[in-house]
Specification:
The chain is mainly beta. The protein has helices at about 15-20, 60-70, 125-130; strands at about 30-35, 40, 45, 50-55, 55-60, 70-75, 80-85, 90-95, 100, 105-110, 115, 120-125, 135-140, 145, 155-160, 165, 170, 175-180, 190, 205-210, 215-220, 230-235. It has two domains: about 15-150, Copper amine oxidase-like, N-terminal domain (Copper Amine Oxidase, Chain A, domain 1, 2-Layer Sandwich); about 155-235, Sandwich (Immunoglobulin-like), CATH 2.60.40. Strands 1-4-5-12-11 form a five-stranded antiparallel sheet. Strands 6-7-8-9-10 form a five-stranded antiparallel sheet, covered by helices on one side. A four-stranded mixed sheet has the order 3-2-14-13. Mean pLDDT is about 80; it is low at about 1-30. Bound molecules: copper (II) ion (CU). Copper (II) ion binds near residues 188, 222, 224 and 225. InterPro entries: Amicyanin (IPR035668), BlueCu_1 (IPR000923), BlueCu_1_BS (IPR028871), Copper_blue_Plastocyanin (IPR001235), Cu_amine_oxidase-like_N (IPR012854), Cupredoxin (IPR008972), ET_Amicyanin (IPR052721), Mao_N_sf (IPR036582).
């Protein structure tokens, strides 16, 4: 049933992989290529014993991938269906089927789950995106980057009033968005001492937001009032 044509194709068109969700001719023979792409999750490299490019979609073994993203898995041999469950989301993939079930809804996929040498391989992009994990690809380093942390994202506001940042020190989770709001009728901004962020000069009631991804301590100041207007954001 499952065609396997493992071959070597140099320089598979990875740009196509990025957009491969769009369409897939069900009748066309799949092209299965061993993949040497690297995968990172939130910046940490992951390693899989095997990975394949199938019709330019990256596939990895389902158990290993589920562990990576902190999901539970199940396998029903009678229906050849993999169930992947994470938080409140459940995705069911049937071997060879272009329809997946995402929280009970039938959803089309670019390339189906596959049995290769008796192991079940699942598409990284499809699962990641349906679990709210962002997927990026850097062609130069052939690295797929997965960014999770949906529920850890928070939004904070620092009010600038009477030439002070309030609160002067703020602790946030990595990936949080911090909005500066100026309440003074004098222009202020916020500039990180290490150059990692800089808002425009804000007039009265104007706001600017920054997103802090890397943990660390960020000292910042207001450029026009550098000598006395200072603050700190601690990213955990
Ligand atoms: Cu200022």
């Amino acid at each position: 049933m499952i065609r396997k044509s493992i071959g070597r194709i140099a320089g598979a068109a990875l740009a196509v992989w990025m957009g491969a969700l769009a369409a897939c001719g069900a009748a066309s023979a799949e092209t299965i290529v061993k993949s040497d792409m690297k995968i990172k999750l939130n910046g940490s490299p992951l390693s899989y014993d095997q990975a394949y490019l199938i019709d330019n979609s990256l596939f990895v073994p389902y158990r290993a991938f589920a562990e990576t993203i902190g999901a539970e898995v199940g396998w029903d041999g009678d229906t050849e269906t993999v169930t992947v469950k994470k938080d409140d989301s459940t995705i069911k993939l049937k071997i060879g089927s272009l329809s997946a079930t995402v929280n009970g809804k039938t959803t089309a996929m670019a390339a189906p789950a596959q049995l290769i040498d008796s192991s079940t391989f699942v598409p990284v992009r499809f699962l990641s995106e349906n679990f709210g994990i962002q997927v990026g690809y850097d062609d130069a380093t052939r690295t797929v980057s997965l960014t999770s942390g949906g529920e850890a994202k928070h939004a904070y506001t620092i009010e600038i009033s009477e030439f002070k940042f309030g609160p002067a020190e703020l602790t946030v989770e990595a990936g949080s968005t911090v909005t500066f709001k100026n309440l003074d009728n004098v222009k202020h901004n916020a500039v990180a001492t290490d150059g990692s962020f800089q808002t425009p000069l804000l007039g009265e009631n104007e706001t600017a937001s920054i997103t802090l991804l890397a943990p660390g301590e960020y000292d910042y100041y207001c450029e026009p009032h550098k000598s006395f207007m200072k603050g700190k954001i601690i990213v955990k």
